[in-house]
Write the structure tokens for this entry.
Amino acid sequence: MKIIMITPAPPRTRHGNRVTALRWRGILEGLGHRVTLAQTYDAQRCDLMIALHARRSHAALRAYRDHYPRAPLVLALTGTDLYRDMQNSEEARASLRMATRLVALQPLASRELPRAVRGKLRVIVQSAQAPPAGVKPPHTGFPVCVVGHLREEKDPFRAAMAVRGLPASSRIRVLHAGKALNPQMERKAKREAQTNSRYSWLGELPRWRVRRLLAACRLMVLSSRMEGGANVISEAGAAGLPVLASKIPGTVGLLGDSYPGYFRVGDTGELRELLTRAEDDAAFLRALQRHMARLAPMFQPSREIAGWRNLLAELKL
């Protein structure tokens, strides 16, 4: 079967949508299909379209529907789709109506959808590879990582702000991997690294280096204001790495409502308290680790593959 996959993220970038599209292409090719990645639809012949992002891929969905009114069309929903564009964009809502099936990355996404389209939704949690054996956190020090590009939705400097002014006895250091998506963010990251001795900006890293970073840290911070179901949580789960996360629906959908490592969005003081507790209270850190270990099977590649196999079977493809 020939599949065209539409993603607004440009080639040779490591934007979240592009990383997801590349992984899905690998899964679908492993299931025996031919997959072409594109940013736009130019009337190419295919058996199925899979599009990421309801609003930004709307023109491609509309063009595909004009050529193939009854052909299967799968729309994958991003965080900005679910938690911003559904309320503000008629194009995003029209994309929902055109789709044969909707894919979300965590189950709480259904709450954001109009009732009329909820029956189309299928949840396929993103998977991740385990980090290489032998990479472990240092015996001394307490490295904490932030993994995510520098943009407003990620609230990227919240961890850096939280470690300012920690007592000299604290061993916490923040290692931030991610690309600055505009010059202002780059200047801010460089300035923070110069003035905050507990913060290092590593820039954009390839995935294999990100996995090594996760394995070498004691904790990860995910401070996002908006997520559809962050793949970095899957990466942390595969690495057995505890997470301190802002309590937003896209993250609660993966970690669960009872997860003990949440802080309020944008609450620097609450995050600082959690970081200090994780460093000083071994029982709290073990509780976070146990919770992540229970979630680990959810992030297995075999489950993501099965999700796509089942979805294609539903579509009789």
In short: The chain has a mean pLDDT of 94. The longest strand covers residues 142-147.
